[in-house]
Write a structure and sequence with these properties.
The complex is a heterodimer.
Chain A (H helix, E strand, L loop, with lengths): L1 H42 L2
Chain B lengths: L5 H24 L6 H6 L6 H10 L4 H14 L1 H6 L4 H17 L6 H8 L2 H33 L6 H50 L2 H14 L12 H18 L4 H9 L6 H31 L11 H9 L5 H36 L5 H23 L6 H20 L8 H21 L3 H22 L7 H4 L5
The chains are: A mainly alpha, B mainly alpha.
Chain lengths: 45, 489
């Protein structure tokens, strides 16, 4: 039973960290790229 | 999840629609869509992390949230980790996609590979399968949009409103921005939806008091004999055979035959990053259903102990969240469903436009078509396909069988498709015959014997054997330089 409880805790905590963490990481990485695309677009205007 | 006011539901949906409109304006302002290649594969200029988010969004739908919980209701503890194993399919797909980018760098669609690598008859067969796959995927999303909108308002907002909102949003941004529109819209929605998945999961667990009280209750049920010990076994043999194998089979056999995934792989700026994009998307794919499935186990205990009304496994997640959370959580579900539907339906529509415009129009109808002509045809196809999705989705049917049947016509071609990128002797006719025979065997096992998971595997193995043996008897001698000779359009 104890093993099952630990497993459920792992599911909750790891998912929480990964779903939030990945979203923030992805936001930063892709936003930087969009800033570059916007700069390029501005140059060609 | 009942009870949010129709006004709140409509306003939330309207705000959600504004995101694709905003994206369409940005893409237009940045002049990202000039050629058909820009429209169909984002000019192969997309950042890999943008593709990661877009691929991740393809998994945010009823199946991955409700289906994951259903797996735990039916299989207990082992069901909690088995459903997330769909992610393995994406990790493997990343390897295959890297290979295809290497042998066919300027591909617009995977169906186009069959045209250049093989011949007309196999090309046409694959086109039919590819269009059917993308259309049925979009159809499912259209139905989901209608059901969720009606569901979260307790029926106060009619079913058709959700379908119509979805259709309008898709038409707006796909016509203007093509795959760029789909990538950026899904990126925004994914960044909203993933934390929502976590919030709903964590808040529901908090309302239940965490895993401790649930496991205490589970222990009592075990002692009372209301729950078998196998439900606590993480490696339950029955679940491994009858659940894990179909999950892996579905992931391996359906992903490589969907243009929706290939076009995102072709859109990545640096071919070396293709594998990385899908590896990261796979991590997202693993953890999103992981938390939903854990709630499925909680729902099982709540139902068995009489603390919650018994519902079918597919409704367990929504029933549990609705049981312990306030009705205002329904707003989060609206955002979740828009995240799931808007981008992915757009991707499916661009996929169909790509196949019809590039594979049919440019290959068979007007061989001297200019790029502008192709772009125009693609836009028309996207518009008509979206309207068709709206029309068929307006009838709230259950098309689960369509979805379940999908791997049956995909699986027989996977072996030939993948191996032919490595071996020049794989030839067209054995893959064509193997595909049809494999489809027949799989269909008989599925419809006649009711063996869904094993039917996929049988279809794959039978078709693969015929493809290999037939090709050894009558080998091709394909020159891969022909694929490299196809240039940018």
């Amino acid at each position: 039973m104890m093993g099952g409880e630990i497993f459920l805790w792992i599911a909750i905590v790891s998912s929480g960290i990964m779903l939030f963490g990945y979203s923030i990481w992805n936001l930063i990485v892709v936003s930087r790229d969009f800033i570059n695309i916007a700069r390029e677009a501005k140059k060609h205007l | 999840m009942k009870g949010i006011s129709p006004a709140v539901a409509i306003i939330s949906s309207f705000v959600a629609i504004l995101i694709p409109v905003f994206v369409a304006i940005i893409v237009s302002k940045w002049k990202l869509v000039k050629s058909s290649e820009d429209y169909l594969v984002a000019g192969r200029r997309a950042h890999w992390a943008l593709v990661t988010a877009s691929v991740a969004s393809m998994f945010i739908w009823g199946s991955s949230v409700m289906g994951a919980a259903e797996g735990a209701v039916n299989n207990g503890m082992s069901g909690v980790w088995i459903y997330p194993m769909y992610a393995v399919g994406l990790w493997v797909f990343g390897i295959w996609a890297t290979k295809l980018r290497e042998v066919f760098p300027y591909a617009l669609s995977y169906t186009e590979y069959f045209r250049h690598r093989f011949d007309g008859k196999l090309h046409v067969l694959i086109i039919i399968a590819a269009i059917a796959t993308s259309f049925s995927g979009a159809w499912i999303q259209g139905l989901a949009a209608g059901h969720i909108m009606a569901g979260v308002t307790g029926g106060a907002v009619p079913y058709w409103v959700g379908v119509l909102f979805l259709g309008v949003a898709v038409i707006i941004y796909t016509l203007v921005a093509g795959l760029w529109g789909s990538l950026i819209s899904t990126w925004i929605f994914t960044l909203i939806a993933m934390p929502i998945c976590a919030i709903v999961g964590i808040a529901t667990w908090a309302a239940l008091g965490g895993p401790g009280p649930i496991m205490e209750q589970a222990n009592i049920l075990l002692q009372q004999g209301k729950l078998g010990p196998e439900m606590f076994n993480l490696l339950q043999p029955n679940a491994l055979i009858n659940y894990l194998i179909p999950v892996l089979a579905w992931a391996f056999f359906s992903l490589p035959m969907q243009q929706d995934y290939w076009q995102t792989a072709f859109a990545i700026r640096d071919p070396k990053d293709v594998g990385r994009a899908f590896r990261h998307a796979g991590i997202w794919w693993f953890f999103m259903p992981f938390i939903s499935a854990s709630l499925g186990f909680a729902a099982l205990i709540m139902m068995k102990s009489g603390q919650m009304a018994e519902v079918p496994g597919s409704q367990a997640y929504a029933a549990l969240v609705g049981h312990v959370m306030p009705p205002s959580f329904g707003v989060l579900f609206i955002w979740l469903v828009f995240a799931a539907t808007v981008g992915t339906v757009g991707a499916a529509m661009v996929a169909i436009g790509n196949i019809v415009g590039n594979d049919i129009y440019r290959t068979y109808v007007n061989k001297t078509a200019t790029d502008d002509q192709v772009k125009k045809v693609v836009r028309w196809v996207v518009a008509i396909s979206t309207i068709c999705v709206i029309i068929v989705s307006l009838t709230p049917l259950s098309i689960l069988m369509v979805l379940l049947f999908m791997p049956m016509y995909c699986a027989p071609f996977v072996w030939g498709f993948i191996q032919s990128q490595y071996k020049k002797w794989l030839s067209s006719t054995p893959i064509f015959i193997g595909g049809i025979v494999g489809f027949g065997v799989g269909t008989y096992m599925f419809l006649g014997l009711g063996l869904w998971g094993w039917a996929m595997i049988a279809a794959f193995v039978v078709a693969g054997l015929i493809s290999v043996i037939g090709s050894k008897i009558s080998p091709d001698d394909f020159d891969f330089q022909k694929l490299l000779a196809v240039k940018k359009r």
